[in-house]
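Q: What would this complex look like in 3D?
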Amino acid sequence: MALLDIKNLHARVEETGMNILKGVNLTINPGEVHAIMGPNGSGKSTLASVLAGREDYEVTEGEVLYKGQDLLEMEPDERAREGVFLAFQYPVALPGVSMSNFLKQAVNSMREHRGLDELSAGDFLKLMREKAQLVHLDPSFLRRAVNEGFSGGEKKRNEIFQMAMLDPTLAILDETDSGLDIDALRIVADGVNKMRAPDRAFLVITHYQRLLDYIVPDIVHVMVDGRIVKSGDKTLALELEEKGYDWIREETVAA
Amino acid sequence: MQAPPAPIVARPEDRFLTAFELNEGHTLNGSNARLHGLRKQAIARFRELGFPPPRTEAWKYTNITRVLQHEYRLNLLPVETRLTPDDLAPYRIPGLDAHTVVLVNGRFAAGLSDIGHLPDGAVVTGFARASETHEDLVNRHFGAYAGDEQDPFTALNTAFTLDGLFVYVPKGTRLRRPIHLINLIQAEEDLFLQPRLLVVAEPGSQVQLIQTDASRTAVPTFTNGVTEVFVGTGAHVRHYLVQDAGEAASAVNTLSVYQEGGSTFTAATTTLSGATVRNNVYVLPNGEHCESNLYGLFLGKNRMHVDNHTMMDHARPHCVSNELYKGILDDASTGVFNGKVLVRQDAQQINAYQSNKSIVLSDAAQMYSKPELEIYADDVRCSHGATSGQLDEEAMFYLRARGIPPKEARAMLLIAFARDVLDTIELDVLRTYLDERLDARFHS
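A: Here is my prediction, written as structure tokens for the whole assembly.
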């Protein structure tokens, strides 16, 4: 069974009624890494938001099955507890909420859902230290407020750190590479690569090919105007880098 | 046929004026001539001022006259309390090692208090008792800081002062343990209570007072409390007030603070419950290099009304003041913040900061914020800001996207919002206690 099966998904912005997704079809199997590329405004981030359950969008047609269940029926927090993780393009600062308290609540919500006991303070600290190393975060940042005063790179590393803590089945990375220098990009990609596993899939959304030098995808999709118009292997990403998106547009229109 | 006689509408003021006339020279004799003289002056002042009419600027958002229409009873005679120390368990702060003083209906309950050992010369006792045992000290300070020229509530309290708390910390003395005042209402009738607190911190001394306002009754009560604080040269005083007297308890609390040079005064007030609650804080740093910190956190639910009214009177140069008030208003509750900073002409080099932020959780809840700066000196730094908004939806989504259920996420964000006020509380056990109270509140 596919892990994620998106069929003819249409969605619009709730407030303005503007149609963004116009019939997305996508199947992701466990263990696969999919990349979605596309020009600005093509609907890549909207797809990530709809999958995570952001309420600003309204699904008007189509369906999304996750582990065979109707994903769109689930609340955002239920989706997360079922193993869907979104690494935010713009992580939110939470003044007054410490990283450790935030993660404790998140991890224990997951564990409760899976019928596990809460982690002891000692085990929790150990887990945090271990996973922080994965993205080279200094343990002292655990005492800071979530994303408050974090640099752009720290915020993105923090997203990957949270992903490692929460151990998802489907991880959606929404432009995690934007605003990162090469060093930070490498650290983030290393973290993701270490988490690749046969029972976990990734959906990597990016505007640029360079992230895919480090996180090598199994399948690359191109999204234009709310639809996936082309899919291929990793060489498609290189082709896009070279030729830009216009040839795809022309090809689509011609077809 | 005769028209029915017009109903006689007694002004609420008249009840107090009559009670004064009946009791003056008896219950309200006072232990000495000065006190007696002050009472007479104060009742004259009250007669002249009356309660603030609804359109008074300082009471614009709080209709206190409506609350005072209720016929509360003045209890001028002491009533024996049947409470035992075990009854105080709900009002204690876990892990707090303190000199515990208990007031029941505004009167010092010696049998319930556990003051313990104090440093040489320090005094912690009931106000009535102190006006006999420490007559000179009481005479020197009582009524010296709480001005009644403009304030009918202070005048009324002074006219009827019977008992309360007296704290004296001699020069250079540091009270290692805080004082915990449990200010308890125990009533079968609708009482009107007027406790009086006097804190005298001599130069170079240090003292922390925690005050817990609580009630064991569901009948309507009204507390008109006045606290006077003298902070001597270089002294440090902290006053933590936790207001949690329940939905039938209305109060006007007036805190009047006088600071000498180089002193520090901090007030942090947390309002957890109440009917109509008005907190007046007047601070006069009357010397150079003073620091004054006024913090407040108020949580409104149901039909609760909380009004914080501050007056920072910078009369002298080189002083600093900080004000931070935060409110979380739910249901049909109302919050008011009216903060005035006055910088007088000769008060150069003043740094005065004021901030008021609120979260309004429901359509029926309201917040009124009115910052006022009045500056007559030219070399000063003053800032003020007021914001009021809803819970941040983006933050809610972020938490939920990490698997945290909405109720939990909401509680986390509300506690986080209150965090910077709670963090001003330097007493760990009190901060933990309030953290837990907030946690329980937002999870209910």
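A: To summarize the key features: Residues 99-113 of chain A form the longest helix (15 residues). The first strand of chain A starts at residue 4 and ends at 13.
Q: Very helpful, thank you.
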